[in-house]
Amino acid sequence: MYRDIAAKLINGIQDGQFEIKLPTEAQLMEMYHASRNTIRKAIDLVYQQGLLRRVQGSGYFITSIQLQHKTVVNLSARGLFSDNMHPRQLVSKVLTFDTIKSDYDLSKQMGVPQDSELYRVIRLRYWHEQLYCLEKAYYLKSVVPYLSTEAVNTSIWDFLNEAYGLGVANSDDYLSLTNLSEEDASLMQLGHGDTYLALDSCNYYKNNGLLDFSHTVFVYPDLALYFHTTNLANN
Fold this sequence. Notes:
Elements: H1 2-14, H2 25-32, H3 36-48, E1 52-55, E2 59-62, H4 64-68, E3 72-74, E4 91-101, H5 104-110, E5 117-127, E6 130-140, H6 149-153, H7 156-164, E7 170-179, H8 182-188, E8 195-205, E9 209-218, E10 224-226
Helix pairs in contact: 1-3, 2-3
């Protein structure tokens, strides 16, 4: 339950519902009909994403990075809340949605046997009517036996959570600069060989089972990257 509340708090921060600070623990307990312990665990998860700063005796304030930058990719939000690393209200244009068997290269990237059955989703994503990214994602059918067209057009992660109770427990992420292949350039109507930021991710659910692999190329102008770290020795 606390993970659901944490996701709602993150959405509230991103949507401007909480602009300066979070409500008090007592107010959040009333809002979400939850115990103090549940609320505290939810707040801790949001804090780990770098969206809050703790002020002794005053509560939790929204971090300035969240307020000042509207084109932030919050890499700290990888894992527990995969959708929350992107800006809210992205619009998807699905280019490919089918089932394939993994070839040698894809099997190696995912660490799965060759010819594993996968859902393949290739989509362009737009923010404020401008191209935000190209996303190629591959979901193991052994873990996700059914993926709906509606989910692919809206939020795959919401569907996985509601249909299968699947969430991302942790992820391996690799950031790099990539030169657009001829295929990717054609899909985005950009220049072949142009350089953009790419994120390759393997997402894992509980017990470290692989859920999916994705390759995302970000092309939105003035995009900022944010990553929050916590010094555990000082906690």
